Amino acid sequence: MNLSQHNQFSSKASQLLSWGHWFTFANIGLALFISLSYLFADSPPTSFMGITYMLVTWLSHTSFIAFLAFVLTVFPLSLIFPYPRHIRGMAAVIATFGASLLTLDAYVYVNLGYHLSTSALPEIISLLWHRLTSSPALTTLFAGGIVLLILGFQLVASNLTWRHLARLKQFKFARYASSFLVICFALSHSIHIWADANLKFDVTKQDNVLPLSYPTTAKSLLAKNDLLDIETYKQAHSVKINNQNINYQIPTPLEKCEDYTQANIDIFVFETDQQLADFISENKGLHKTEQFLQPTNHSDMLFSLVYGLPAFYKVAIIEEHTLPAWQSQRRSIEVSGIDELSFINDQAHTNSAIRVISGSKVVSPRDNATQIFAFSLVNDTQEVVSTSTLYSSDKRISKIEGLIQPSDLIATSVGQYLNCKAIAKQTMLGVNLYKKKDNMGVNYSQGVVIAYKKDRITLIDSDGNFKNISAAEGFSIEQGLDIPFLVQSIKKLKTFTQ
């Protein structure tokens, strides 16, 4: 009798394990569908190898996560408690929880640029709370609907695979699919090893896209086998940068602004929040956004505001008294209250298209001002950058998703309001906010490179020390250095160097 019971026990466990494999295949398909959102959250790779790596990594890594979840949950339960009806119900609930968690992580990544983590918990809660309070009924219905859809899928997949288990066992699909996914897994890591060793950033920039992604690196594997020049690797991955002895190179030939539009833009920079509040009370109808990211060093910020460039170029431009590239008789700028840039007014005209006014003196907008911007300086000595409030007469600016930098204001003024898009794009790193496509940018202040991607800001000094912070809340984010993104940001920062 004991032997018979043992055989019955083994038979049930064997059936459950066989069913579990097919149930896992169904969840792999669901996980692949959900994880498609990660692939579209960032700009896609442009090279053939980058696209290939994206696809094979998506297939293999997502499948591995789903299979690992089965091994850690359903598999041990099937051995310890081999009762089909109960196991299938518990497996459906566990899989629903896992798929819902993956959906939540995908939503957070699309909106914030990083995955679920305890260090980013305050910002994640803030994001979800904002979504819930902005439209509570719709959000609850949508979130609940997703969970119910996932649960329904799990119950259907659980029952169908159990009912048709005998017929499914006859298929060779599982064997071929498993082999294909193993090949994709090996291929993805092989491509990453090659790309990391040869600095193919179109591949390595995808390191942090999928959750729980820890790809093999060239340094650890190739160095172990004496196949890597460590010094060359370190130099290539060096993130040290300085702005000493650089030359600011104006692009040539400079585009002409043939379709110039007459517009007068006033940009007010106040020393204190109270002065800004007084100005707003006297000038009703301005729209605000709290995603204005500015350097805490006032000189660096004002330079960026006027030239549309990071302070990386400030020394070279001020020493040479180089005028803004777009300066002309029709597109003149007047600067008030910025001693370092007073030389600009030597050739500016009284009928200036753009006025930048800084200081404590209360000045009213011109009667014929087409657009108005107003904000106050940040008096924070602890951080290199900080977010503050920007007021604008342009309602569209207040609806921009993501961070806005001072350089974006001048780029928008020249590119959009004055209709000189080509010149703004050719001579500035600031973004025309009407053409903003992604929430990414780079700046430089106090010897620190500032690169942001969605809510994550990476600060890295000339010694290679770095930290990640949340743009909205200012807390530190415990994530590693994203070298590919940083290298791309530095290349963009150095656009106008010889």
UniProtKB/TrEMBL annotation:
Keywords: Membrane, Transmembrane, Transmembrane helix. The chain crosses the membrane at residues 21-41, 61-83, 90-110, 137-161, 173-195. InterPro entries: YejM_N. The keyword Signal does not apply. The keyword rRNA-binding does not apply. It comes from the Bacteria. It holds the Pfam family DUF3413. This is DUF3413 domain-containing protein. It comes from Pseudoalteromonas fuliginea.
